[in-house]
Amino acid sequence: MTVLPDAAAQDVLARMLAFVDEAAPLALRMRAGGLAMTNKGSDLSQALTEADLAVSRLLHERLGPDLIEEETAEGLGHAAAGALLARDAWTFVADPIDGTRPFAGGLTGWGVMVAACRSGWPRIGVMTLPVWNEDRAGPARIGRPEAARGILLAACEGRALWAPTLGGRPTEPLRPLERPATRTGHVGWLAVSAQRYTLDYGRGWFPWSEGGSISDAALLATGRLDATLTSNMLWDLAPILPLLEALGFGLFHWPDLAPPPTALIDLFDAELSSHDDLWLLCRDRGQAADLAQAIRRA
């Protein structure tokens, strides 16, 4: 299916919600049936399951062809991706399953996420974490797909929204999500960041991560984290930005606190990676300055 270039934002959001309404139950069913996890080449951090590929195919069926997604982006290149994102038309950026290792391992920190970008920046975001509300009173296990309780997060036209899910589908209409008021002293600390940086605990910041960018974003949006870091791939950042920006968070470059470029693609290199840069997602510049002083190069 093709989304019309001039489609209204609410219509695009509805198409994205319909996609995750199919994708989350599909991932849950495949996970319950048992999945073998492999790796993409020699980089053991890049995990892959048949569910990643199945959700990738569904993405192309429901949102293509104006789509950049992890499993088919190899060889696309910076120039082609930049041209797609720069148009005054909708381009989708997606991660079929973010957090493949926790997904296959029976943990909670995974989900499906997609952004709709226009004129160089993500404008709409949808994330579903189908087992986010796992009962942690007992041992970890993969339960029945239809009994899985999770959370749906979305942002459109500057509004942050959420709804509980059961079996991967929302049980209530989307409702407003308010900016978190709590302060926890914790910062999202994904593996890519941890390879390159260390954190000075003496400055009152402590790392917490449950698997991937989607779980970091959910922890931040729901008040479990104060800030998070990004030094990953295009599809790790684009889907989470609309939600976090709607909640008042901003991007700050480490260590100089420079603002982000006006075009999202300029945060990434030829491989659509930002591994050589570190960006802080914080409530404000003051918080970013405090966190920046706690970060050291490894």
Describe the model:
The protein is α+β, with helices and mostly antiparallel strands and 298 residues long. It folds into two domains: 9-176, Fructose-1,6-Bisphosphatase, Chain A, domain 1, CATH 3.30.540; 186-297, D-Maltodextrin-Binding Protein, domain 2. Helix content is 30%, strand content 25%. It is built from nine helices and 17 strands. The strands form five sheets. Strands 3, 4, 5, 6, 7, 8, 9 and 10 form an eight-stranded mixed β-sheet that branches. A three-stranded antiparallel β-sheet has the order 14-16-15, with helices on both faces. α1 runs antiparallel to α2. The longest helix is centred in the first third of the chain and has 25 residues, at 9-33. The radius of gyration is 18 Å and the shape is globular. It starts with 8 loop residues before the first helix and ends with a strand.
What's the helix count?
Answer: 9
The CATH homologous superfamily of the largest domain corresponds to Fructose-1,6-Bisphosphatase, subunit A, domain 1
Gyration radius from CA atoms, angstroms: 18 Å
Mean pLDDT over all positions:
92
Task: Tell me, briefly, the overall form.
Answer: globular
Largest sheet: 8 strands, mixed
**Overall tally of domains:** 2
User: Number of DSSP strands?
Assistant: 17
User: Can you write the helix and strand succession as a string?
Assistant: HEEHEHEHEEEEEEEHEEHEHHEEHE
- The CATH architecture term of the largest domain is 2-Layer Sandwich
Range of strand content: 25-35%
What is the CATH first-level class name of the largest domain?
Alpha Beta
Low-confidence stretches: none
The rounded distance between the terminal residues' Cα atoms is: 46 Å
| Structural class by sheet pairing and helices | alpha+beta
Share of helix, binned: 25-40%
